[in-house]
Amino acid sequence: MAKERLPSRSDNFSDWYNKLVLRAELADYAPVRGCMVIRPYGWALWENIQAALNQRFKATGHENAAFPLFIPSNFMEREREHIEGFSPELAVVTIGGGEELEEPLIVRPTSETIIGHMYAKWIKSYRDLPVLINLWNSVVRWELRTKLFLRTTEFYWQEGHTAHATEEEAKAETRQMLDVYEDFAENEAAVPVVKGRKSEREKFAGAKQSFSIEAMMGDTRALQAATSHNLGDNFARAFEIRYLDRENTLQYCWTTSWGLSTRFIGAIIMVHGDDQGLIMPPKLAPYQVVIVPIFKNPDERSVVMEAIDTIQSKLFDFRVKLDDRDELTPGFKFNEWELRGVPVRIEVGPKDVAKGTVILARRDLPGKEGKKIVKQNGLENVVAELLDEIHASIYKRAKSFQEANMHSPKDYDEFIKAVEHGWANTWWCGDQACEAEIKDETKATTRCIPLDQNGEKGICIHCGQPATERVIFARAY
Ligand SMILES: [Zn+2]
Fold it and tell me: Were both Cys, which of 343, 353, 356, 428 would link to 471 (CB 3.0–4.6 Å)?
């Protein structure tokens, strides 16, 4: 049963990641290149992500709906930047039912266009606004170089689409959803993020302004963890989404879109994982607690299992897995659940039963340091506190790592070194040509222009032109 050891995270981060995703049974490669199969353990994590986001989306007035997979090809062409941005990645259906189609159908890469078409039909008056809809679906973008969760041809996500009467409202919605994502990332996934605006070059194709939350992975590369776009009136004009205002004048709507995808699972793996495997953030973990019985003979087994029955009934508020597979040793089970990142392990042996105690082991602190003996009486409170403590502890660890690898280079030579193994927070002129040169020379791209700016002025780290904003540069997934 012995499995090959996981590659060390520090030796080969990429190999560590690929093998971990497979070994932890989060996902597998599909027969079609670039596609992935999300296995039950990975899907359970995604369902918990969905639940945490749905709660926030609904609390801010949004409703879920479902839109079709196919989009008429002429829809995509109506917004110029949008089609230019997406055309290289489109999957197009030309044959249906054995016959060539009159108009090819596009497998949705995102739904702004079909949303635009339907909103134009539904919105007539200021009384119909705002429209606040979210979709949970999968989309297809043809990718040549793929990596499970991070970049696949088909991926799962949510896409929010809203329409508003005024530009101000649309702007406020864009920022509100960015805040929702930040709150989710930090308070559910324990992933610290930087909120900011995307540069013109990095913004969504067809957006007026894009915002993102950016997270630092364990190898210091950046991952765009979610985006929120102010679409201005671009799609409203392309699809004639108009309404009659209170004065009976026809006005264009102002729209937004925002999304978070299964890429976020990649972030959870790469932010928290270690050489032993995954570390699941307690609030999203498919199993928050695993119980491993320890016994040597059938008599001990029945004593231990009876005690576990009582323990399980105390823990009904938590997601608990009892690993009662008889054919495996406790040691094997410990390793397996460590690899799969379960935050808390409870060990119960005959001696523990006799003393009315259990052994608690926390995943984020391996070895003796993370183990303690606690009473069965009141165990549910101890577990609740421990899960909170683990959340705080892994968040703090990730935040310290982010701060330690966030550099403020003094000149371009320092900048080059900074982005080799970290992020650079630096003055940048805002010029697209300058940004492209930096990318060619260092592979670092602008991740975001942080919303927190102190209002000072500086000079661009690369070209020396005046700069009014500090920008995060990093190599990114
Ligand atoms: Zn510059």
Answer: 428
